[in-house]
Design brief:
heterodimer, A: alpha+beta, Protocatechuate 3,4-Dioxygenase, subunit A, five-stranded antiparallel β-sheet, 2 helices, 11% helix, B: mainly alpha, 75% helix, membrane (chain B), transmembrane (chain B)
Amino acid sequence: MFVAVVWVIGVLLATSSLHGTGARDVGVRASGPEGPSVAELAEGLCAPTVSNPGGTNNYVPKAPFTDPLGQGFTVTGTVRDEACRPLPGVRVQVWAQTATASEQRNRTSVRTDAQGRYRVDSDPLVAQFGEPNVHVGYDDPGPWRRVFLRNVTRDGDTGAQVDLVLSP
Amino acid sequence: MRVAVIAAGVLGLAGLVVATTSPHLAGAPIVLAVSTLTATVAVVGLAVQPWLARRRVRAHAATGLAVLALVVVHVVALLVLSPDDALFAMSPDGPTRARMALISLVLLVVVVALGLARRRLGWSGPTFRLLHGGFALLAAVLGVGHAVLTDGALEGAGTVVLLASGALSVLGGVAAAIRRRRVRPAVPASGTASAAGPPPRGPR
């Protein structure tokens, strides 16, 4: 029985996700940003971003436009449609835990520019439930489906890139 | 045993000092501080348990219940701090470190339940020791693993405290197993009379 329990525990740990299901390291020191691949962009066929578990943690609808939230950490990204065309004027919400503000309070909305890019400046992120994480969401009513992401960074990162591909 | 208890005390104090002076807790909500400090003490409590099991059964039982209570407070404080994040962490989609903590908590409940029901279970001494002690050791190792993988107030020197606590726990388990192996020829299979070794000297 003891061996069986140890075996089950081993399976449970081996099948777990280091950062949580669907969460990626999107910090500047990570292997790559969250978003479409270079091949997808070249083909003009971008897979839509899918919300991941935990993406709506501490989400509050209609966050005010309060960027910048501080300085020392920059969240950037591009919002596209499934044909990989940049979407200007789209409101994106960003929220994360910093040393001076909790994840429940440190949030802002921001609109994409003519190239579909957005940028939010914040104080450096600190661990929230074990590791720094950054939430990016699209929650406007309209032609696009809502998307909520929870991704992680590492201590000391100065930025993160989270690109979104919206689908009808 | 005395050395191990003193070592655990030193580790506990060191852990509390590291945690309370950590920038992670500077200006943090009180529930986060409560959650961190209860977990720190619980880890050290688990580390000393194998050393108490043989001759200090009352202290062993009281420490076990205290550790479980501390861990429950740790979890409740996290739920108060951020229900969304706490429930996500405890869900099947939670990160590895959270799964380790959840398994450790379940094992801890089982270990305490086994300890409380020891006489009623009627298991042999070796069977009880394997399950009670083995699960407790797993709970300790997973708890330490959870804490080490968690960025927070126990980074840096805190990691050393956590690993030393884990090592103390494992050493206690190994020492108890070696001791029993040495005395086994002189000790008949004892049924449920003493699940943790020879009968304690004092009243139980």
